[in-house]
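Posting this for the archive.
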Amino acid sequence: MAFFRQLFHALPPPAMLLALAGVFYAGCSEPPPPPEMPTPEVTAATPLKVELVEWDEFVGRLEPVDFVEVRARVSGYLISTHFREGQIVNEGDLLCIIDPRPYEAEVRRAQSEVRRANSQVKQANAAVVQAEAEVAVATARHELAVKQLERSRKLVQQDAVSQDDFDIRESEVSQSAANLQAAQARLELARTQVTSANAMVGSAETALALAELNLSYTQVKAPVTGRVSSRHVTEGNLISGGAAESTLITTIVSLDPIYCYFDADERSYLKYVRLAKEGHLGDSREVRHPVYVGLADEAGQYPHLGHMDFVDNQLDRDTGTMRCRAVLPNPDYSLTPGLFARLRIPGSPKHEVILIPDLAVGTDQSEKFVLVAEPDGTVNRRVVTLGGRVRGLRIIRTGLDGSERIVYRGMQRARPGTKVVVNSGVFEMQEDGLPLESTPFPEEKSLSRQPEVVRKTEDGRSSSAN
């Protein structure tokens, strides 16, 4: 600065005036106009119009169809176990053995009682035969006495027999009649003894059957096929069985098929009821709707297919939800009871929807909107109502008819009412494992547990059949 000041004072007066005029002229000149902003470029695409079924999503938990606490039915010392903890066991597999010796002795005693009762039946039958013979003898003697009495009566009238002989004949008839009645009474008693002996045989056979049943209970077998838990009691311990406080040996959970329980909120339940009444969607209590299930590590995928199995008869008063259940095949045992699962069930009939990606949707306070590129390049704002997500795209309930071009890239550069350069794009659906339509399971492929039908056998006993 000092250098320029010295230089300015060193200039002659005319040169100084020229320098001041140049500075004044430079300060009064206008600045150059700013460069024009380029027209913003955006990418827009036409929404997809697809006919599909909307699948509602719920969170559930896997539960076994059968959960069995294996307990002993008889008491005794545990002498051996025959299962590996945590392994798969089949129905009927031997799990453990309780000391059978006391029950074997009881079986032998019951067998002796049966033999003794059978011998008593034979004795009673022999007594019946003897009583029948005595009745036959007494009958013959009574008939002979009656005939002799009739002949004596005729002879008395002819004075061929004394009155004393006639009286003797009458007494013989009375005596033979009494003997006949006694023989018949002994026959009835013998027959009663046969009935009693047969009842004793039945009682002894029942005791034998019970003893054999208790002996069979010393071999504890798996009641269902499934995965066995750990041992709750080891060899050498005294097992208490046949009571409410019977010893718990282990537990078994069935795995194939497997249940998935979930709770539907009140609004969803009312929607399903309305759709069923209108005939758009079958009642889940009657129709086996398909259910797609995904686990925690199967993000965005639902590879496990089952069907609806149960809907409860009332809503939970505490939570306001309806308990529902799906059943799924599990032949490879990959589904484990207790796991959380994501379920997708049909939530609408098949209908046409408009789909756009979420990145094309903007938010303005409580409104959702999209930017629509008009044919002349003008951008307009359109308020829309959103639905659920389908294959990576968002359903648009209202606000679009599907013929618009929706801006989904460069939205921050576009302003409603301004011109833009529109590049064409395409919306694409992602595969999520869910079909576009819902087909109920046929009856022959149902996994639901069928009720048992009780039937009467020829001997009057009840039998059950699926």
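The chain has four domains: 43-52+351-424, 55-65+256-346, 67-99+218-253, 102-217. The domain at 43-52+351-424 is CATH 2.40.420.20 (conserved putative lor/sdh protein from methanococcus maripaludis s2 fold).
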